[in-house]
């Protein structure tokens, strides 16, 4: 029923646009709005880029993880994600991302959507839905972020470390920064199913510098200018708190526990928790750590049916189980 409701909302929304005899102000606003679609692998700084464009250039930023992060709050989103995992049908999610983007375009003349979209098939579906909803194809700009693998893995380490601490765990002393980087690069080299495709129409933007060149390269790709008075550090001080606030909200709304339960339901035994005979407080602590583990793993790779269903090495499963039970990694 929830999925039918979500699909009906999209159909009714499109029908309402087509029924109008005259172009309304909102229709004209959508058609004239510039829409920037930013994508790249996890860890490349997509959300950071979207937030930068919001802070420094006045774009309305749509975080592409909105449906995913709200599965514990919105029944339609939960059922939509479960269907994605069961049947690998991602079209409802990308239709919803298009709707959210178009809603932003009703009120803003510049909108940016950031998302870790791996396949061109999904990207093209999203763009098709934007055009179907009234956006002008000429005003849609596709930006694909690229980054040096080691730089990306190092950035993932520091974000993972921060978010693990929010969940009551610590990586220090258990998993060094260099070991983490090694594991991330090794996992990506072995992952042949989740290859990040290059889009033929995308503007390629390298953000490996992790310095002011990140902003320079984004601005150049979009024809933007900014004041040279602000340093990289001062801009980051304005941008980073936005996503940190999102992380806190996501941690509090039950998202990661919901994802962990879905994975356990799919047969991921290393995320299963035996509650019988255990102290209630201990069970809650294990659930909190399980949520944090899922959170950390989702930073490293995009959520897809294959990435959640694929079995992992025995060593990785043992590390995960150890973290859930004790809060520490047992090598």
Summary of the model, kept short:
This protein is α/β, with parallel strands linked by helices and 331 residues long. It has helices at residues 2-19, 25-32, 46-57, 66-69, 75-87, 91-107, 120-132, 149-166, 177-190, 212-222, 232-252, 255-265, 280-300, 305-309, 314-326, and strands spanning 34-39, 60-63, 110-115, 140-146, 203-206.
Please specify the SSE layout and strand pairing:
Elements: H1 2-19, H2 25-32, E1 34-39, H3 46-57, E2 60-63, H4 66-69, H5 75-87, H6 91-107, E3 110-115, H7 120-132, E4 140-146, H8 149-166, H9 177-190, E5 203-206, H10 212-222, H11 232-252, H12 255-265, H13 280-300, H14 305-309, H15 314-326
Parallel strand pairs: 1-3, 1-4, 2-3, 4-5
The shape is globular
Share of helical residues: 55-70%
Write down the secondary-structure element order. HHEHEHHHEHEHHEHHHHHH
Query: How would a crystallographer describe the biggest sheet?
Result: 5 strands, parallel
Query: Can you list the strand order of the major beta sheet?
Result: 2-3-1-4-5
Low-confidence stretches: 299-311
Strand content: 5-15%
State the secondary-structure class.
alpha/beta
Radius of gyration: 21 Å
**Straight-line distance between termini:** 45 Å
Helix count equals 15
- The strand count comes to 5
pLDDT average, as an integer? 79
């Amino acid at each position: 029923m929830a999925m039918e409701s979500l699909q009906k909302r999209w159909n009714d929304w499109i029908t309402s646009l087509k029924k109008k005899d005259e172009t309304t102000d909102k229709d004209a606003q959508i058609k004239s709005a510039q829409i920037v679609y930013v994508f790249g692998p996890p860890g490349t700084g997509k959300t950071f880029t979207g937030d930068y464009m919001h802070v420094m250039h006045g774009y309305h930023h749509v975080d592409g993880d909105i449906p995913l992060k709200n599965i514990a709050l919105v029944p339609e989103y939960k059922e939509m994600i479960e269907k994605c995992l069961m049947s690998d049908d991602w079209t409802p999610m990308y239709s919803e991302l298009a709707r959210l983007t178009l809603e932003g375009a009703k009120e803003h003349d510049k909108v940016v959507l950031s998302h870790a979209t791996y396949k061109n098939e999904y990207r093209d579906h999203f763009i098709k839905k934007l055009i179907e909803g009234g956006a002008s194809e000429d005003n849609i700009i596709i930006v694909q972020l690229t980054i040096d693998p080691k730089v990306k893995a190092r950035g993932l380490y520091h974000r993972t470390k921060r978010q693990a601490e929010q969940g009551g765990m610590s990586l220090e002393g258990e998993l060094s920064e260099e070991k983490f980087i090694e594991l991330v690069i090794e996992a990506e080299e072995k992952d042949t199913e989740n290859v990040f495709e290059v889009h033929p129409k995308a503007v390629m933007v390298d953000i490996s510098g992790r310095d002011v060149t990140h902003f320079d390269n984004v601005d150049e790709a979009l024809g933007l200018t900014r004041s040279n008075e602000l340093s990289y550090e001062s801009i980051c001080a304005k941008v980073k708190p936005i996503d940190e606030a999102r992380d806190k909200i996501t941690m509090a709304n039950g998202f990661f526990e919901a994802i962990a339960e879905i994975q356990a339901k799919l047969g991921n035994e290393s995320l299963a928790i035996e509650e019988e005979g255990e102290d209630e407080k201990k069970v809650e602590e294990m659930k909190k750590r399980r949520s944090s583990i899922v959170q950390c793993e989702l930073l490293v790779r995009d959520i897809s049916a294959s990435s959640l269903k694929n079995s992992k090495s025995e060593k990785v499963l043992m590390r995960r189980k150890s973290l859930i039970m004790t809060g520490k990694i047992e090598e």
